[in-house]
Amino acid sequence: MITSGFAQGLALLCRELRDRDHDTVGVEDPGHPGEWKFIAEAGLRPVGLPVDRDGIQVDALTASGVRAVLTTPASQFPTGATLSAERRAQLIAWAEAVDGYIIEDDFDAAFVAPRQRMPALQSLAPDRVIYAGSTSKVLAPALRLGWLATPASLTARIERVRAGWDIGCPGLEQLTFARLIDTGAFDRHLRRLCDDFQKRRQTVNQFVARQMPGATTLAGGSGPQAYLVLPAGCAEEAIVQAARRRSVLVRGGRFYALRADDRPPALVIGYAGVRGPELARGLAGLALAYRETTGRTSA
Ligand SMILES: Cc1ncc(COP(=O)(O)O)c(C=O)c1O
Fold this sequence. Notes:
Distance between the termini: 51 Å
Shape: globular
Strand order of the largest sheet: 1-8-7-6-5-2-3-4
Number of strands: 12
Strand content: 15-25%
Radius of gyration: 20 Å
CATH superfamily of the largest domain: Type I PLP-dependent aspartate aminotransferase-like (Major domain)
Bound molecules: pyridoxal-5'-phosphate
CATH class of the largest domain: Alpha Beta
CATH topology of the largest domain: Aspartate Aminotransferase, domain 2
CATH architecture of the largest domain: 3-Layer(aba) Sandwich
Number of helices: 9
């Protein structure tokens, strides 16, 4: 089903889960606060589940008692961790055991390095996994174009709910997107974008190694942002504010956290919208903010 972005797909799925007597949905923590809001608006409670270098921790999921989970296995948002093969198998086994569902939010898989890429989770368990995609990261969020591939058992029900919400999404954008794909222009665009992001990621990684002593990236990093774990005791909000005074927008890890604050301080640097020279200027401002706040000077 074509949806008005993943946002509409998620709202539809939440409605369906509620009709099936779910009152909670597991979400990755750190994760996307906007999605938690959508889930809550739909009358469900988002339950935060910890994430590490291998993605969502399935043991915590099992212990949580939820029977549906929203996850970003290709490139965890915002840490960039890829869900390991072992966790993928565990996750599917969990869904079978609880008669539950996995919502696979595959919004930025296109940016994952080819050697790190794995087949979609949905290919392992099409009856348990709802696959969701979006053009928001690969083209533009303002297009509001997304899609859901649902298990057959859910499709007719979701179509019925959707029919009560709207008649469908604008067709012109869909036809244009199809043309971009058919002509190969989309493929070329993606390759260029991946190269660009790869270069920006390298710039950020080198910057962190040289200018932010003590900070480390949580995962290899594959999305258009880097999640930096800061040294214990670092005042993440003070760094965010010091950067902002220099017109540099970064966010603290707290912004992406759902549960009580027992995680190490962190910073998220988004580089999707900033090209080379702008990125260099932003990072220079961040280096000053880091030095001013922590007293740590470059390596
Ligand atoms: C984690 C995550 N999932 C999905 C999306 C796509 O959502 P939408 O298609 O509603 O813009 C985004 C934003 O681009 C995102 O950050």
